[in-house]
Specification:
This protein is an alpha/beta fold. It has 2 domains: 1-46, no CATH class; 49-395, Glycosidases (TIM Barrel, Alpha-Beta Barrel). It has 19 helices and 9 strands. The chain has helices spanning 2-18, 60-63, 70-82, 94-104, 109-113, 122-126, 140-159, 177-180, 211-227, 249-266, 277-281, 288-296, 321-324, 346-358, 379-388, 397-408, 416-427, 467-475, 481-484, and strands at 52-55, 87-88, 186-188, 203-205, 233-235, 271-275, 304-308, 327-332, 364-369. The strands form 2 sheets. The protein has a 7-stranded parallel sheet with strand order 2-1-9-8-7-6-5. Helix 14 packs parallel to helix 15 and helix 16 (397-408) crosses helix 17 (416-427). The radius of gyration is 23 Å and the shape is globular. Residues 477-484 have low confidence and may be disordered. Bound molecules: 2-acetamido-2-deoxy-beta-D-glucopyranose (8 copies). One 2-acetamido-2-deoxy-beta-D-glucopyranose binds next to helix 10.
């Protein structure tokens, strides 16, 4: 499998570096490879600078893929494999196994139905931010269809040489658990985003309760039976935008030590994958002392893999002494709330991973993408991050962009304007150095026409860039504007 994977990456390098054409998410110039095929010359060699190349954000499964069919999945998985991703997140179909596990402990379908959220809102239910659905319960037909889809997705990931990061039991349970198990250690999570307590303050079974490992083992056994023994990586977030019941450091350490013990009871080689977003989002709660106690509850450094979710703008690894030794992944994050716009910080995403890796005592083990929504566009950002994972020095941005443009667009008719336009984009929208723009860039063209209120409102943060310069990029060769800016 590993051999197949490596050869896939080198085939892609041949196509792009030597063949001079590209294969992207929605298209390909593979048919334009020169004939006869150019010789390789010196053998292609290369290796990744990190063991893990990661992809997805838990919320992408709501913002982007909630209603995808396997055709769309298949296309994206090919795109990931060609770019060397070996550790993608695989959340689809979670509820099917969770429902079975809940039924087993005695919860009724009505109890469970009142807990689960609708398709587009599931990430926040999985995070324990919200519970319940409005406008009817999650249909079982949908749950079953998603389960069948996940079987296809996981099989395809494995076939492409990738290791899926699979779900696990987090501790979030239907309210009825408190009446079913009156003596169990159960607390309410905090309130999320102003929701009424009936829809938030999600019920949390504390990991030191004996029921927790019992449910974990059952969940993971069912999951292994469904997808095969294909991964030891488990995504598990308990405090994402949700503060712990207590800030007592011994409480926090006991949460993680017991959660981790439950994973290892279920899978002796389990690795706990967790987003590091909480440490940024809830900075006031997560003092260094609490972070250290929380992470310290898990015994070995490589038993955890933390996603440093917003490394290019709000890194947390550098304030936590490289997560106090736990392994972590350098991630690029934008498209907040699934809002799409051209945005990136090419200097930060090329120099950042290298500086982090070379930091004395760094426990960084991966590079990846954690964009909230992923749609067409911004592929230059994704390509350069994933290519940076294969280069021990920071990639040369202008050189990279030039090659990227020439392999992407028809070479014979490529006007110089295409290169000029991309040179402007790469130094404006893709050179966003402001860490406070919250990575949500919304084009004015996407909005309803108005004379006021077009900027500086939620979801449309101001960006400091030279608009006149950017407008210039779109003026070159108007007739082909569309072709060169997508
Ligand atoms: C809960 O604990 C109380 C007091 O220890 C005990 O009397 C009761 O039987 C327990 N209930 C259950 C359901 O275990
Ligand atoms: C959790 O919240 C519910 C209301 O939604 C409340 O009835 C219950 O008492 C709370 N439980 C705890 C342990 O605070
Ligand atoms: C919900 O969480 C908030 C803290 O975020 C807390 O003040 C409130 O008491 C909680 N409500 C319930 C019903 O648990
Ligand atoms: C799963 O694979 C691991 C090796 O990666 C092995 O130790 C374990 O016994 C396998 N479990 C099952 C249920 O086959
Ligand atoms: C934290 O919890 C432990 C164990 O329950 C307790 O002994 C200790 O006094 C608590 N510390 C604080 C500061 O409350
Ligand atoms: C971590 O790095 C970021 C980005 O370079 C910087 O803004 C922040 O001040 C650094 N934090 C610490 C504690 O060094
Ligand atoms: C980066 O590439 C450009 C264009 O290919 C070249 O002019 C420049 O010298 C390179 N910069 C460095 C630092 O290598
Ligand atoms: C948006 O807000 C920023 C900061 O408050 C301000 O500098 C800028 O002028 C505002 N932009 C617009 C278009 O109102």
């Amino acid at each position: 499998m590993e051999v197949a994977f490596i050869s896939l990456i080198f085939s892609f390098s041949y196509v792009t570096e030597i063949g001079g054409v590209d294969i992207w998410w929605t298209g390909s110039r593979l048919h334009e490879l020169p004939s006869p095929l150019p010789s390789v010359g010196a053998p292609l060699t290369g290796s990744s600078i990190v063991p893990y190349r990661y992809h997805f954000n838990t919320v992408t499964f709501g913002y982007t893929t909630a209603f995808w069919t396997f055709d769309k999945w298949s296309l994206l998985l090919d795109w990931l494999a060609l770019r060397g991703v070996n550790l993608p997140l695989a959340w689809v179909g979670y509820e099917a196994i969770l429902i079975e596990t809940f039924r087993e402990v005695g919860l009724t379908d009505a109890d469970i139905g009142s807990f689960l959220s609708g398709p587009a809102f599931q990430p926040w239910n999985r995070f324990g931010n919200i519970q319940g659905a409005w406008g009817g319960e999650l249909p079982m037909q949908w749950v079953n269809d998603q389960f069948a889809l996940q079987k296809q997705i996981v099989a395809r990931m494995v076939e492409l040489g990738m290791t899926p990061i699979l779900p696990s039991f987090t501790g979030f349970v239907p309210r009825a658990m408190t009446t079913l198990f009156p003596n169990a250690s159960i607390v309410n999570g905090s309130q999320w985003s102003g929701f009424p307590s009936s829809l938030t303050n999600v019920t949390f079974l504390e990991p030191f309760d004996p029921l927790f490992p019992q449910i974990q083992k059952s969940f993971i056994a069912k999951q292994q039976a469904a997808y095969g023994n294909v991964s030891h990586f488990y995504t598990l977030d308990q405090y994402n935008e949700n503060d712990p019941f207590s800030g007592n450091t011994s409480y926090l350490a006991s949460i993680t030590s017991n959660t981790f013990a439950s994973l290892r009871e279920a899978d002796p080689e389990a690795i706990w994958v967790m987003q590091g977003w909480l440490f940024f989002n809830s900075l006031a709660f997560w003092t260094d002392e609490r972070v250290e106690a929380f992470l310290g509850g898990v015994p070995e450094d490589d038993s955890m893999l933390i996603l440093d979710l917003y490394s290019e703008a709000q890194p947390q690894w550098n304030r936590t002494n490289s997560y106090f030794g736990k392994s972590w992944v350098w991630c690029e994050l934008h498209d907040f709330g699934g809002n799409m716009g051209m945005e990136g910080n090419l200097p930060a995403i090329t120099t950042g991973p290298i500086a982090s890796l070379n930091w004395p005592g760094s426990s960084m083990k991966g590079i990846g993408l954690s964009m909230e929504g992923q749609e067409l566009g911004n592929e230059i950002v994704y390509d350069i991050v994933l290519d940076q994972a294969w280069s021990s020095s920071a990639l040369n941005i202008s050189g990279y962009v030039e090659k990227w443009v020439s392999r992407r667009y028809p070479a014979k008719s490529l006007p110089p304007a295409a290169q000029k336009a991309w040179s402007i984009l790469s130094t404006t929208v893709y050179n966003n150095q402001n860490p406070n723009t919250q990575a949500t860039i919304k084009s004015i063209f996407e909005k309803a026409p108005a004379l006021t209120g077009l900027a500086n409102i939620t979801g449309s943060h101001a960006v400091s860039l030279d608009v006149a310069k950017l407008a210039h990029a779109s003026r070159f060769d108007r007739s082909s504007y569309h072709h060169y800016l997508v």
